[in-house]
Design brief:
Pfam families: Glyoxalase_6. It comes from Streptomyces clavifer. There is one protein chain. By secondary structure, this protein is of the alpha+beta class. It has a single domain (about 5-175), classed as 2,3-Dihydroxybiphenyl 1,2-Dioxygenase, domain 1, CATH 3.10.180. Helices cover about 20% and strands about 30% of the residues. The protein is built from 4 helices and 16 strands. The protein has helices at about 15-25, 75-85, 140-150, 200-210, and strands at about 5-10, 30, 40, 50-55, 65-70, 90, 105, 110-115, 130-135, 150-155, 160-165, 170-175, 185-190, 210-215, 225, 230-235. The strands form 2 sheets. An 8-stranded mixed sheet has the order 2-3-4-1-13-16-15-14. An 8-stranded mixed sheet has the order 6-7-8-5-9-12-11-10, with helices on one face. The two termini are about 15 Å apart.
Length: about 240
């Protein structure tokens, strides 16, 4: 059985504070759980949750992935930006041009995200989180399409994008040049299987598609793996 995208995980210096920021920006409610599992839930039954896990490594390079938030009007875009700034976000410069309509911000932990202008056709059929925009190769887009069973909705000039058959957030990869990887990613995917699924068989399937299993994560915790671009992801084992 194919893995499902269970969560987007943030390694955060202050997980609870970062969860409050994103809960306030997105309007997502926190989940009940143990103190070390700080999670916010999507508003509907489909989609992924966002988890905030302890990580003490200082941020030194631009993340390989960031959220693109959508807008329904110029006023809606301004309101999202204002809400993010009031919650502790800041404007940042990543080389965007003055004539570009999106607004680039960082959350209180320094993670970049964009608030996209209204009328973006590519994100018209998504939701508030229109895309998780990633720095990555065409190969890794193909890998994640096969791994999750999500069809390609864009494949041109080595840029790729996938989307769940149920709709919602797109995951995109910008193609070359891909910046060299420096340390562990702050954002990574967490996959899950139903409790009765054969997770060893799923691990072998992911490896056959191009993933690598690391030495970390053995035992009762999640299996830690790398995709073809060397990005970390985890596979939750049955509890």
């Amino acid at each position: 059985m194919t893995s499902q995208l269970f969560a987007i995980c943030f390694n955060a210096t202050r997980p609870s504070a970062l969860a409050r920021f994103w809960s306030g920006v997105l309007g997502w409610e926190p989940a009940d759980g143990p103190d070390d599992d700080v999670t916010i839930l999507p508003p509907g039954p489909t989609g992924f949750r966002i988890r905030f896990l302890p990580g003490q490594e200082p941020k030194s390079v631009q993340n390989r992935a960031h959220f693109d938030l959508t807008s329904t009007s110029p006023e809606d875009q301004q309101q999202t930006v204002a809400r993010a700034l009031a919650l502790g976000g800041v404007h940042i410069d990543v080389g965007q041009l003055p004539e570009e309509g999106h607004v680039v911000l960082a959350d209180p932990d320094g993670n970049e995200f964009c608030v996209i202008e209204a009328g973006n056709d590519f994100l018209a059929d998504t939701g508030f989180i229109g895309a998780l925009a990633c720095d990555g190769t065409q190969e890794v887009g193909y890998f994640w399409s096969a791994a999750l069973g999500w069809p390609l909705v864009w494949d041109q000039d080595q840029e790729t994008a996938i989307q769940s058959p149920n709709g919602g957030t797109k995951i995109t990869w910008g193609g070359p040049p891909v910046a060299p990887k420096s340390g562990a990613n702050r954002l990574y995917f967490e996959l899950a299987l139903p409790a009765d699924a054969d997770w060893e068989a799923e691990t072998h399937r992911l490896i056959s598609l191009g993933a690598t299993r690391t030495d970390a994560g053995d035992g009762d915790g999640p299996i830690l793996m790398l995709d073809p671009d060397g990005n970390e992801f985890s596979l939750r084992t049955p509890r």
